[in-house]
Design goal:
The complex is a heterodimer.
Chain A lengths: L11 H9 L3 H23 L6 H14 L10 H20 L21 H10 L2 H12 L4 H8 L3 H21 L6
Chain B lengths: L10 H9 L8 H13 L4 H33 L2 H6 L5 H25 L5 H21 L5 H9 L17
The chains are: A mainly alpha, B mainly alpha.
Chain lengths: 183, 172
């Protein structure tokens, strides 16, 4: 006989049902399971405004919880949650305005010599224009398709592809010339 | 991950993107902020509703059981056997007891007669002897101003050793 699953081993669907029944612990388990990735994704989407990420994670979770009755399990919960996070971030960026070329101080200065490091890449990503950065993050890091990105951003699939091409070109340029000169 | 748009010169960028960390640490207090907000919005009241429903169900079951117990106690207290065993009965209760006992006798005799299909002489024997015994007891207590004595005399042939035709039951 298979022993019953421990609470932290329960699949997302079971935790969601428990949460909807009023189980706070089930929500905390969902939160602990998905927040580390959600926070990283939203921080990258925010670029230079990544200091707002904690508020956006909270807004994303609240929006997800309020709409959880409508989640039918067609997509993975993590994908569904990320989609809500993307929408929340887009609204935030459009509401607050952007300083697109400002590079966050959270990343140390790029190395002057040697191959591009991950920190250089993070800085280069943050320095990209919002629409380019969002497409790179969603496609090349999070694995969204161009169709899905088009639905999220309200653009055509071809537009997403073209934006991605320009974004990669900008990243190559930034990494080869140094992030401080990237635009 | 979809690298369908990968050009040759994208490979280094994609390799670096692949190596980027996918997660970051989450502070302990961040979950508490969200839980507090969700609680304000009523997300964790469902459990309280469930608990309240369960308490109501338990209370209803308890009331039902108390009712059943009280009802059984009342019924037992007013049973024939219990009233017969009680010493402190009012005159009215004793009159009622006598009537109920008499009715019970008649019903028992009738059911006995029905069960024996009117062909069993034992039915007549038993019914008559019980009735005669009751009449003797009533006669000894002088409760009926001599009626029972006359009745016992009238019934004497019915309890003779010889089988006799079945007599009708005297109804109280």
């Amino acid at each position: 006989m298979t022993p019953p699953l421990l609470p932290f081993e329960l699949p997302d669907g079971a935790l969601i049902r428990r949460f909807l029944d009023g189980d706070e612990r089930a929500f905390r388990m969902l939160y602990e399971r998905h927040s580390p990735r959600l926070k990283m994704t939203l921080a990258r989407l925010l670029g230079a405004r990544r200091q707002d990420v904690d508020d956006l994670v909270q807004d994303t979770w609240l929006a997800a919880c309020r709409g959880l009755h409508g989640y039918r399990g067609d997509a993975k919960f993590s994908t569904w949650l990320t989609s809500i996070g993307v929408r929340t971030t887009l609204n935030h960026l459009s509401r607050t305005g952007t300083r697109e070329t400002e590079v966050t101080d959270e990343f140390p200065a790029p190395a002057s010599n040697g191959p591009a490091s991950m920190i250089d890449l993070e800085r280069a990503l943050a320095a990209l224009p919002n629409h380019q950065r969002i497409v790179v993050v969603l496609h090349d890091i999070e694995g969204f398709t161009h169709v899905e990105i088009g639905e999220q951003l309200g653009v055509a699939e071809g537009t997403s592809k073209a934006t991605l091409s320009r974004a990669r070109q900008a990243l190559r340029l930034a990494l080869s010339e140094g992030v401080s000169n990237a635009s | 991950m979809h690298h369908d748009d990968m050009a040759n010169d994208d490979s280094e960028i994609l390799r670096l993107l692949d190596e980027l960390p996918r997660t970051t640490s989450v502070a302990d207090g961040e979950a508490d902020r969200i839980v507090a907000q969700l609680r304000r919005e009523g997300f964790f009241r469902a459990r309280a509703r469930t608990m309240r429903w369960m308490l109501q169900a338990v209370a209803a079951a308890a009331i039902f059981l108390v009712g059943v117990f009280a009802g059984s106690q009342y019924a037992r207290r007013n049973s024939l056997e219990d009233m017969l065993a009680r010493q402190h009965l009012s005159v009215a209760d004793r009159v009622l007891l006598l009537q109920r006992a008499g009715s019970a006798y008649v019903r028992a005799a009738q059911s006995y007669a029905d069960a024996t299909a009117n062909v069993d002489s034992n039915a007549v024997e038993v019914a008559s002897r019980v009735l005669l015994g009751a009449a003797h007891a009533v006669a000894r207590s002088s409760l009926d101003a001599g009626l029972s004595a006359r009745l016992t005399t009238a019934m004497q042939p019915a309890v003779s050793p010889e089988p006799a035709p079945r007599k009708p039951v005297i109804w109280f």
